[in-house]
Amino acid sequence: MKQKINLLIGFSAVVLIALSAIQYYLVKTAYEYKVEQFRSEIKEKIAKITNDYSDIDSTIFNKKDLLYKQLAENYIRDKKTRFHIKNQLLQSDFKNELTRKLQEEFENEVPDLEIDFAIVLDKFVIYDVTKEADTIFAEKPFIENKIYGNLASLDDAFLIRNYVGTTSGSLQQELNSDYKLLTEDTLYVSIQNWETIVLKRMTLLLVFAVFSILTLITLFVIALKALIKQKKVSDIKTDFINNITHELKTPLTTLSVSTKILERKETRENEAVFNSVLGTINRQNSRLQHLIDQVLTNSLGHQEIELHKERVLMPNFLNTIIADFKISNPNILIETHFHSQKTSLNLDKFHLTTAIANVLENAVKYGCKSIAVKSSLIENQFSISISDDGIGISKSKHSLLFDKFYRVEQGNLHDAKGLGLGLYYVDQIIKAHHGTINVVSDLGKGSTFNLRFSI
Ligand code: ADP
């Protein structure tokens, strides 16, 4: 059964992980699709604005063409270094003006988006008709070649469009040469917080995905908990049936043997033997009665227990219980540390005596040699602690200890008899008194039971 449950847990966990992975993959694909959709939307919007440079400001773009031309001619005239020409291109006087103009245009046309942009020059090639083409530069796009714009990096930027321009000119007077200029520049745009915008558009899907996975995990945990609890309950019931059968067997066998002995004529004729067998029958009978009482009384819930409260003087009450306990357990060393002040509490004497005796008897049953009983009065709380040096209880069992019929599996080492009702009864009695009980213990380290009542 345990193996089956483990297998079920393992299998369900794998299915859960697989479902989460599929969910993650679907969300990721949807995100990529949304990004692509957003990118083409932006492309379309911005392409409309910048469709024609002259729409923005013809004079400024003419100035740019003029600058290209001027630099090309300067280059043909005195062949300044390429580096020098490139620098002049990139640090043109129009840089700021063009940036501002285009920025204003974006702000007017798409006020809901904060757009950073850059026009990056990729190519600057001069064709001198008489000579071969002279490439001043042709590079992969990178932000350092920005001729204007306010974008600082191309990393997250969308490529909107490429502009390829050709200009013709002639320098006939001095050099008698016609030339053509080929330029290529690209517009990159980056939308501030574009991830947030895309994620916002996916909110419903994300919420649904997270919600469905969380629901699935919660259902899985609830189902597992119910399964484990059911298994525990069924184990506890089986244990209880085994224990009670074992407990009933001895007196019943003795009773059946005794009646057989009584049936014999010789027994009936011998008064001494007859009385002794009768005594055995009586003892076994009361043992059976005691067992049944234990099951009936001790398994009552705290709401069903009827308390007959009376004023009880502490620590005198504890002293009486310990004195009785000493008589039946002369080999156990009992130490007491009671609070000095006399305190009177409103308690059910009978039930509380049985509860405390249960804890003391458990200490003996589970291997102790000595017990320490302490009482203290802190603020409005009266507390009794009972510590023993017995086998102790592993921490993992503490939460189950006060459950009905629960017994810690002891293996074959400490085959102490019991029905798993003792601590349940103690807990119910303390609860009926509106008190609390807890245990401090670990395997091999003894146990301490702390009982607390409000005064
Ligand atoms: P029972 O003694 O009939 O088994 P209880 O309800 O009295 O049932 O106790 C529940 C379990 O708690 C016991 O089976 C035992 O393993 C453990 N236990 C209780 N008291 C002690 C103790 N003082 N030291 C070690 N184990 C204890």
UniProtKB/TrEMBL annotation:
Keywords: Kinase, Membrane, Phosphoprotein, Transferase, Transmembrane, Transmembrane helix, Two-component regulatory system. Residues 243-455 form the Histidine kinase domain. The keyword Ubl conjugation does not apply. SMART domains: HATPase_c (SM00387), HisKA (SM00388). It is an enzyme of class 2 (transferase). InterPro entries: BphY/WalK/GraS-like, HATPase_C_sf, HATPase_dom, His_kinase_dom, HisK_dim/P_dom, HisK_dim/P_sf, Sig_transdc_His_kin-like_C. Its EC number is 2.7.13.3. One of its GO terms (cellular component) is plasma membrane. GO terms for biological process: cellular response to phosphate starvation. The chain crosses the membrane at residues 7-26, 204-228. Gene3D superfamilies: 1.10.287.130, Histidine kinase-like ATPase, C-terminal domain (3.30.565.10). The keyword Transferase applies. It catalyses: ATP + protein L-histidine = ADP + protein N-phospho-L-histidine. This is histidine kinase. It comes from Flavobacterium macacae.
